[in-house]
Amino acid sequence: MTTPATTPPAATPAKVLLAIPSFLLNVVRGALIGLAELIPGISGGTVALITGVYERLITSASHVITAARVAVSGPDRRRNAARELRQVDVALILPVLLGMVAMVLTLAGIVESMVSANPELSRGLFFGLVAASIVVPLQQIPRLRRSTTARIGGVTVFFASAILAFALVGLAGGAVAVDPSLVIVFFAAAIAVCALVVPGVSGSFFLLAIGLYSPTLLAVDERNLAYLAVFAAGALLGLVTIVQAMRRLLERHRRLTLLAMSGLMLGSLRALWPWQELAPGETHGVGSPVAPYDPVAGPIVLALLGAAAVFVLLLVENALTRRSLDAEHGSETPQKPRL
Question: Model-level pTM?
Answer without folding.
Answer: 0.67
